[in-house]
Structure formats: structure tokens, C-alpha cells
Amino acid sequence: MWLISVVRGTLSLLLFVIATLLLGLPLIALALFKLALQRSPHRPALTRWLDKIASAWISINNTHQRWLLPTSIAYDGPQHFTRRQWFMLVVNHQSWVDILVLMRVFNRQLPYFKFFLKASLIWIPVLGLAFWALDFPFMRRHSKAQIARDPSLAGKDLATTQKQCERYSEKPVTIISYLEGTRFTPAKHRAQASPYRHLLLPKAGGLAFTLTAMNGRIASLLDVTIHYPEGRPSFMQYIGGRVGHVTVHARELNIAEDLLGNYTEDPEFRAHFQRWINKIWQEKDERLEALAHCGPSVIKHEK
Predict the structure, then answer these.
(1) Cα–Cα distance, 230 to 69 (Å, whole number)
(2) Total structural domains in the chain?
């Protein structure tokens, strides 16, 4: 078994590298071209091609994962989505494997994916350029202490988010947000004194900013819950074929007009929005608790 895992892991990693080289080179070339055409009317067309390359990269990796790995992904949720509308997708975060699972379940089912990223990631050589070219939103959040020291920072978070979201106004996308902000670990859970059994505390501000900045274009929130019956896996465990089952639950929630407002300056709206998120998180926690007791027997449909 150990030798089989090593062979699988080596082959999987090799195929990831080959796919990245084959599609990464044209992606970076187009990214540099896009960078040079800051005010050109051709930039939207370049972005569409960049999105197609990224989607093709995901599809190739999904294919070799299905061929090589014994992992079965059980999906319970909506079966058909329209790619003509905008989605906000929120999901619990336990492992780097979460991203691969999301890509396997939802690639080509939803509009092109855009991940929230920390602003500092734009400076990573090559990858930062690729993230920028794919219009991933880079978020810079100012703390209350920073704003207290420099009041001119007040409102800049929302202004930055609005500027990031302007590029999505004409083309439907799926914006993916990990509301916990980091991967779940028992140590982080204890440090936060989180009231949830399987989740860290959700950070609602970035989501509120984005929904408001999109001016009502995002009408649906896709609430996704990922459960690993055998425990949280590492990336190497996954590509080595040591993950037997993954369960993915999804539900589509309507985003009402009362969920759009000034999160920073309106305490009443902020409390209302936080109550909405906390309710979603409580239900997600209960779902994870039920899955922990039921295991993979809850499977209704395998994607």
C-alpha cells in the first residue's frame, strides 16, 4: 500500500506540473500582454481567454485525479446551475484539498471562479501576475485600531472592494470566500473559543463589502460544506490516494435586498448581517456534526 501511494503521489504531482507548464506558459504570456494593454478595449477579450485557459487547466487536473485516485466525492445539492448569473460561494476551510474538491465538483458547472486573496499575494513571482490577470480580488482590510490612528482609512476597504468588483459587472463570475479566513485546526479553534464544534468564527465584513459593491448583481449565495469522513487530509495524502471519501453538501440561498448596506458605518445593518451569517454557520456546524456521525452513508448523488 505504501509503495502504491508513493507511485500515485509521484505520478499525480508530475501530471500537475505538466499541465501547469503546458497551460501556464500561454497564460503568463497573455497576462503580460494584458499588463501592457492597460487601457485597451481588447482587455476584456484577453480576460475571457485567460479564464478559458484556467478552466482548461482545472479540467485536465480533474481528469487525471479521477483516473489515478480512488477518492469518491459524494455531492448532495443543486444539480443544475445557470452560468448567466453571478454567484457568491462560501465554504468551510480545513485543508488545501478543499480547493481541489471544489474544482472537481463545480468546474464548468458555475461561472468562472474568483478567489478572495490577501493583498500581499500579488507580489509572489509569476503566481501574483497570474492571479492579477485572472482578476482575482486582492483584499486589504484595515483594523479598527488602524482606522482609529488614521481616520482617512475609513471607507477605503469598501472603495477597494468596489473597484475590484467593477471588473465583474459585465461578466458573470463565482466569487469564492473562505469566511473563516484560515484553515481549521484544533489549536485555532481553542484560541478563538469558537462556539461552533467544527468551525472557526466567520468573518462577515469582506462578504458584506462584496455583496454591496456588486450592487445586487449577486442574487444567490451558494453555501457549501465539505466533510472528510476519514479526517482532514493533507495535499500529499490526497494525491497519494489515501483519501477514500469526501462528502460535499451545497444549498442555494437568496440574497435579499436587506443584506446590502454600509457594514462599516451602520451598526444596525452590521448586526443584522452578522446574525444572517451566524445562522448559516450554525446550520453548517450542525450539518458537519450530523455527517460526522453518519459517515459516507449520506450519499445521494456522486458527481
Answers:
(1) 15
(2) 1
User: Which grid cell is 138?
Assistant: 486582492
Q: Phi first, then psi: what are they for 179, rounded to 5°?
A: -65, -25
State the pLDDT at residue 287. Answer: 95
Distance between CA atoms of residues 66 and 72, nearest Å: 9
What was the pLDDT predicted at 4? 79
Q: Is 18 inside any structural domain?
A: no
| Residue that the C-alpha cell 494584458 belongs to | 34
247 touches 105 (CB < 8 A): no
C-alpha 212/C-alpha 9 separation (Å) is 43
Kindly state the cell numbers that stand for 129: 501576475
Range of the domain at 289: 71-302
Task: Extract the C-alpha cell encoding 173.
Answer: 463570475
Residue from 176, 173, 200 nearest 103 by CA: 176
Residue 59 lies in a domain: no
Residues 247 and 299 sit within 8 Å (Cβ to Cβ) = yes
CATH number for the domain harbouring residue 283: 3.40.1130
Which cell numbers hold the place of 188? 485555532
pLDDT in tens, 82-129: 888 999 999 999 999 999 999 999 999 999 888 877 777 777 776 777
Please report whether residue 25 resides in a domain. no
Stretches in the chain below the pLDDT threshold 50: 296-303
